[in-house]
Amino acid sequence: MSDAVKEPSMLLQKExxxxxxxxxxxxxxxxxxxxSTFVPGNLNELxxxxxxxxNLPEINAIQNGMRKLSxxxxxxxxxxxxxxxxxxxxxxxxxxxxxxxxxxxxxPFPNPDVLLLSYxxxxxxxxxxxxxxxxxxxPTLMLHVPYEGDGQSTKNMRDYIVKxxxxxxxxxxxxxxxxxxxxxxxxxxxxxxxxxEDDLVWVLEQGKRTPxxxxxxxxxxxxxxxxxxxxRGTTDAIDYYRTLRAEVQARADAGLGPLMPDGTTLSExxxxxxxxxxxxxxxxxxxxxxxxxxxxxxxASTYTKVGGMYDFGFRHDPDNPLExxxxxxxxxxxxxxxxxxxxxxTKYIEEYQADGLLTNSIKSCNSFSAGQLMMxxxxxxxxxxxxxxxxxxxxxxxxxxxxxxxxxxxxYFQMIxxxxxxxxxxx
Amino acid sequence: MPxxxxxxxxxxxxxxxxxxxxxxxxxxxxxxxxxxVGFLPVYAPLELIHAAGCLPLxxxxxxxxxxxxxxxxxxxxxxxxIPRSTVELGVTGRLDFVDGMIFPFVCDxxxxxxxxxKIMFPQVWTKxxxxxxxxxxxxxxxxxxxxxxxxxxxxxxxxGRPITDAALRASILHYNENRRLVRAVYDFRANAPWKAxxxxxxxxxxxxxxxxxxDHNGMLADYLDAAEAEDRPRRDNVRIAIYGSFCEQPPLNLxxxxxxxxxxxxxxxxxxxxxxLTEDVPVDGxxxxxxATAYLTKSVETSCKYVPREEDKGRFHIAQIRKAxxxxxxxxxxxxCDPALLDRPMIARRLTEAGIPHISFKYAENSGQMQPIREQxxxxxxxxxxxx
Amino acid sequence: MTAIITAGIDIGSGCIKTVLFRVDGETVEWLxxxxxxxxxxxxxxxxxxxxxxxxxxxxxxxxxxAYVASxxxxxxxxxxxxxxxxxxxxxxxxVYLNDRARSVLDIGALxxxxxxxxxxxxxxxxxxxxxxxxxxxxxxxxxxxxxxIAQDEIGQLxxxxxxPEKVSSICAVxxxxxxxxxxxxxxxxxxxxxxxxxxxxxxxxxxxxxxGATEGVVQMTGGLALDEGLVAALNEAxxxxxxxxxxxxxxxxxxxxxxxxxxxxxxxHQKLALxxxxxA
Amino acid sequence: MQCFIGIDLGxxxxxxxxxxxxxxxxxxxxxxxxxxYDTAAKVSKxxxxxxxxxxxxxxxxxxxxxxxxxxxxxxxxxxRNFRRIQFLEQLEDLEATAIGNIRGPRFEGxxxxxxxxxxETFRRLRDKSAALFAPGxxxxxxFFRDLAGADFMQVGEAVSKAAGLPFDLILNLYDKSIIEVExxxxxxxxxxxxxxxxxxxxxxxxxxxxPVQAALAIPLEETYVVGTGYGRVRLPFPKEHIRSxxxxxxxxxxxMYPGTRTVLDIGGQDTKGIQxxxxxxxxxxxxxxxxxxxxxxxLGYIADEMNMGLHELGPLAMASTKxxxxxxxxxxxxxAELRDRLALGEKREDILAGLxxxxxxxxxxILSRAGGVKDQFTFTGGxxxxxxxxxxxxxxxxxxxxxxxxxxxxxSIYTGALGGATFxxxxxxx
Lengths: 427, 388, 280, 430
Ligand SMILES: Nc1ncnc2c1ncn2[C@@H]1O[C@H](COP(=O)(O)OP(=O)(O)O)[C@@H](O)[C@H]1O
Ligand SMILES: Nc1ncnc2c1ncn2[C@@H]1O[C@H](COP(=O)(O)OP(=O)(O)O)[C@@H](O)[C@H]1O
Ligand code: SF4
Ligand code: SF4
Ligand code: SF4
Fold this sequence. Notes:
The complex is a heterotetramer. By secondary structure, chain A is an alpha/beta fold. Chain A has 18 helices and eight strands. Chain A has two domains: 8-182, Rossmann fold (3-Layer(aba) Sandwich); 186-425, Rossmann fold (3-Layer(aba) Sandwich), CATH 3.40.50. In chain A, helix 9 runs parallel beside helix 12 (235-253). The longest helix of chain A has 23 residues, at 155-177. Residues 423-427 of chain A have low confidence and may be disordered. Chain C is an alpha/beta fold. Chain C folds into two domains: 4-90 and 255-279, Nucleotidyltransferase, domain 5, CATH 3.30.420; 99-249, ATPase, nucleotide binding domain (Nucleotidyltransferase, domain 5, 2-Layer Sandwich). Chain C is built from eight helices and ten strands. Chain C has helices spanning 43-57, 86-97, 137-147, 151-159, 172-184, 189-210, 228-240, 256-279; strands spanning 4-11, 15-24, 27-37, 65-72, 82-83, 101-107, 112-117, 123-128, 215-221, 244-248. In chain C, the strands form two sheets. Chain C has a five-stranded mixed beta sheet with strand order 3-2-1-4-5. Chain C is globular and about 75 Å long. Chain D is 53% helix and 13% strand. Chains in contact: A-B, A-C, A-D, B-C, B-D, C-D. At the A-B interface, helix 7, strand 4, helix 8, helix 15 and helix 16 of A face helix 5, strand 4, helix 6 and helix 13 of B. The structure holds adenosine-5'-diphosphate (2 copies) and iron/sulfur cluster (3 copies). One adenosine-5'-diphosphate (ADP) binds next to helix 3 and helix 4 of chain C. One iron/sulfur cluster sits between chains D (291-293, 330-332) and C (132, 171-173).
């Protein structure tokens, strides 16, 4: 996204990411240990306690998707026997390995010292690390986070997670890093997390304004960057969110919409949408433009909740460190059952005064996608607002059919428009 | 006079073909207050359902005989078939007599289906049943015991009757017997596959998921006796194991096609629930704990279970293959099945290391074209025959 | 050991291929061959017709043939002595046509298969194209007809392309629309055909990689082996992928399956005779 | 007079509808969407204009005492003659083009023989054309490609066989030339053709010549054109003249049947389920995804495979007594599936019946996805012309949604264009 216009928060984020990649790729020289772990339910604060650098394969896949490398990686993985049908994040990751494992900064990734299998909200995580484990032969620590099948967490689930943290994860990380666990360090990190989380929630909630000063989907994926990845629990994240908040505040005060990559602000907002599902990364800009060209702004999205849901009140809690980590893992968006997801979406449509629900259904991701059609119908029924359904993929460029997506989006927008005008002048 | 194999198989076929579950409905009608509890693949503790006095009913999709109309409205084209045909069964009222549904942990598709069921059929007791992926008795075991207790309480609320430990022990005994007989059928087939064709054994197993375990035990014993006594022509087929089919089941025609193309199936993971626990569950001591321990220590390796140690991956499969003296493996998995397809490269690597020939292909429960299947299975059989 | 006559019959979805061999120990003599396009006829009746015509040409009758081996969609062929599956026979046929072949690409009207073999034609591994593919011979044939190009012109035209236009759809129906779009944008037939060849070649290279073919000669078999444009595109794709493979065709490539069947038939016949002798 | 035109550039066919300021349909035109979309749009519009003239003739003849009671006959006559003139013109063009294409190494040394075969073939085709356009004759298709093509296959094969030439050679010339001919919009003023048609009519030209000429003289003004359909982005129109095909189908169905609440449209490569409100405004819709399984083209492939016309599939399927179960509606493998079944000894009509059911089952899924079927239900798109598909649909709608009024208009294929024309009229009149 080199040619895009940037605000201070974006530059800050860019720098953070670059710094983390440098820390990862220089780990062998600096003697730091490297872990791989997933975004949902990631235990970044805990890793900080052991001085372990956090490398997130999903983020690498996204980076490779945006830089148009993923298509090639996916083909490489498929050539080595992976099925066309399975999650393309996994294949992009495995394909990247096959092609030298080069990080976005151009240097090779070191092999991880530990695979921290934070198994939250997605079945594929388990297989993904089983596959990596074959390759790296490094210790693999499984943290099994039960699914909230009945719509809430239970004491049994929480105890199970805490017990795993105590008996499996913490001893495992101690062994890998050679650092003794210090709960006060963890408390400190959690305190930092909570502060950044407050600002993040404030930013996301500005989508309730008209015009909305943020785009909670295309812009949102940037807003959640630091908190979902290697920076939660750091003061860097606190700084980032403070800066971001100031920018959003300034736009809100000026009655402006979100900043677009081309430097304009989307202030003429004809349609307000809630979006369910992850975005497509290989055609991210083109996809975004299909919305902004029509004056559509996303006021709330669920993708910005995959790495943790904060807008319903949860914060990391220094006073109950392990328990709060457990609650965090349990509460990630895809770990919630479908009735809960329907409720969340309904609430968003109402509270953010949206014109409707748009589902971007991702071929790769059963965790998100299986059941989305029913969710859409249910939300339509409850809110009376129309839904629309498009299908793309995360990082497989073969599954982005621009004409198809555009056709559906246009029809959807024209439909909302026509509805607004009512029957008399339906043109 | 005991039934001939043909008679038994015909009975099973009738049960298998019946998408209205007439037999299960009749069972429920036969006495007041009876409840039927459906369960999906792969594993659910049927002993608990049985001990609650309910009929555990296997809901394994609609196969290739069902016309799916509404099911497709719930699923995108890149999701496997079993949830859509299951939804079709639901919305067409074919499951209207089912009082409870258990959705065991297999993958995110069935996981999410549990939530859909709650929304679509609010009157049905619906339980997502999560099994632990940590196999330490102190950690995963403790969690699992609580989960089993929750399941037990749920069933008790459903029936309004407590499940006593004595009842549970009795049920475990029935299922131990069932497991023993199922193993006997598998052993018999591994010895004389021409006497127990894969399609027959499959029907026998599927039928067992639709009738009381006591009846199934009788049926299995009859079949074993009859099959032993019958003489059937033996063909120059190779012996193969089929893996990858633990959830969505292939159409019966596929199983027949594989055999037609020159393969005897001597081991498989179809309808795995009745072989999920590999040994008897002890009945002395606390029965819930016994079930939990059996799951943690004496259950099969399959794609929905984490394998904690890298070196153990695929070990179970290799042992089974050796035991059944299979000459090769067909890894046949449903299209779009992440568990099977993500596991496939790992299992394949282990098979290669062990020098066991293997091939793989995908199917859907309603696949119609068997030509590519015959061709692949046939070439595989040719190659083993000509060159092994 | 006396000389025997064996026949190989390959019933495909597009054509029926029939061959006749005389085998005497190590000496193999190819007597006759035939390709019949099915075009809406009953394949089994057509097989009877062409087979009998061939025997008549050779002055033989059905009883003179020691082993009739079928392959392809011919499990139900009544007069066959035995059936071998396509990959078994294409592997053997490829080695017969080219003893340097170590892998085979069989591309027929509907399916494509990649087969890895050893020097005796033994199958070491294979892959088939998945069901849903725009890379079938049938598709190419439809497009060519739409563009007004005869089958044997495709290859030359494709080779003359200067700016191949990629076909992106995986679905043949949608790909057809893509092609219509191209024509309307004024893309030349040569560039369109080459574009289709390129996308087929990419997929085929992927298949070859999947079976672990890394070096040596890839023998093309089946009807599309006769399409030199595809062969050229494949070689370009292999080079682009840095695969040390060379794809080669053969004028009789379409017969590979039938040849393989006839030869395995002879092998099997001798083995059975041996068993009979031992039994006697 | 003012004309409001909607053009629906579909994946297989392009349709145009002309409407007057009272929102009355004046004319409809259809053509193949082959290769050149501009041409397709132009041809369909021209066809619709021809149809418009016929409507104007009808209006003019209403006042002619001598024509009373014969208007239909006169118009049918006029149209048939007109079509035949057009057909012969195109046939002539095709012949000249094909002869011009006899060059290159393929024909070396055989040019004269090939030319003779072509000339003989075309001579016989011209002779047959009289029967093709005889009163009451049932034509296989409305498109020149199909009409000329079907006969060409038959006649050409026989002629080349007699001449000892491979038919492939001749077929290839046809393939090469038809596409060129199709991309040339019919030349010549249609007025002149109408006048010639008038002369060769059976009616005494004198009584009707004057009113027809008067109607011909009415100037037709292209007041506003709206484009829609799959290829709409390729139309040479400004953005505000383009509407999504979903909206057009919704509105078109509403114009035909104001009580419509649910629309099913099965086109060449997509199937849509649309819900509309009482004003024809779209409330919800679903389309098939990337896969074109079970759409109109599927029937096209089957027809090709069976060597039949699209019009003939439905009637054959209706003759079935025992439907075969078909699970895959993959368009590409339709032929393979068909052969598979034939090989198993199933009857053609039974397989066809199964195939039709499979298509409709898929459509039912899409309808279910779009929120089910409400009263009234309107079925549109090309496949609505297929009686076997319609029969299955009726059955399944009844089973799944009870007694719902089902509307099928004989001109249902024009629904999208009708919606477009309505949008065009509204843009100017409102
Ligand atoms: N000379 C040729 N050039 C290009 N393609 C050809 C040629 N001859 C035959 N084909 C193609 O080969 C296909 C038939 O190949 P074949 O291997 O016989 O297939 P199958 O076994 O499926 O019938 C047809 O689709 C046809 O288009
Ligand atoms: N007379 C007919 N009888 C049966 N089917 C027809 C007939 N005319 C057209 N069709 C079907 O309709 C399809 C085209 O429908 P249409 O609505 O024009 O699609 P599109 O708008 O995508 O071009 C064809 O593929 C064909 O299957
Ligand atoms: S399935 Fe979904 S949640 Fe899981 S790794 Fe893939 S994209 Fe992520
Ligand atoms: S078939 Fe596979 S993907 Fe589908 S529900 Fe079963 S385990 Fe999940
Ligand atoms: S219609 Fe196209 S996308 Fe669908 S299965 Fe067939 S080839 Fe694939």
